[in-house]
Predict the 3D structure of the following.
Amino acid sequence: MENLIKRAARDIAESKYAVALTGAGISTESGIPDFRGPKGIWTTNREAEAKAYERYELFLRDPRAYWEEIVGSQGVYGKFREQIRRAQPNPGHRALAELETLGILKCVITQNIDALHKKAGNKKVLEYHGSVNAVRCVSCGSRFAWEEVSLDRIPPRCKCNGLLKDDVVHFKEPIPSDVMEESEKEALKCDLMLICGTSAVVYPFANLPRLARFRSRRLFAGLDMMAPRSNVRIIEVNAEPTPLTHEGISDYLIQGKTGEVLPRIVEEIRKGISL
Ligand code: NAD
């Protein structure tokens, strides 16, 4: 592993435009369980998985019932939100914040809804699946802090009269177009992608490494016939191999905990800078 950490430090230090992609795995060391890891919410509670698939349908069918559940903060979802609010960034988050301070990391694109990258100090964060801290209008796309929204009447409505929904993107819900477009631009622009703590099976997020690798939006069957970009480095830091590892989308996997591996990479980069 030591050699891979040195290799990653060299690749990252030499990059011109590095971006990080993160998933639930980077936050497990902050006490927030992931979905599909060995102690994941869904691995241990299949009912929670089935319920997660129904949430967006409930919002579309009966927004009042959806909001009643949120306001009551009952069930698995309510407990999860509370756990997230109390959580603090861990050394993995802090390492990414340090890489941004060093001017190396240009952007973090995260699937996480826990806002821990911002808490750790990263400035440019694209929250692909939204954030527990915001409420979004499903018509005009405006976002509000929870404190700005009156819950005296539910479902709450935006100034444009559109329905408000918590910002967290549920399964089957479209990714907000602003964040999706910006994320795709970053993936097409980067020359290094550092992918941390994701099983890379949730789409369309899992397309971003493929966009970076093939530098094309034409992500359909037959993509493997296209020439991959050799000048993009894609590095995974994850507890286990993923489809990106198996398909050769990533150049290499550093198998381990993000809270241990990422600080060691940053330490190596710092050594190089001070030489
Ligand atoms: P996932 O649960 O599918 O996969 C997590 C991956 O990280 C697994 O491969 C696991 O082995 C690995 N992992 C776990 N702990 C790790 C560690 N300390 N170091 C390195 N690797 C570790 O998560 P996903 O790919 O992000 O997809 C799940 C979806 O659920 C996302 O869309 C996200 O929005 C949502 N989610 C978010 C949070 C959060 O905000 N913290 C938590 C759970 C789920």
Remarks:
- The first strand starts at residue 18 and ends at 22.
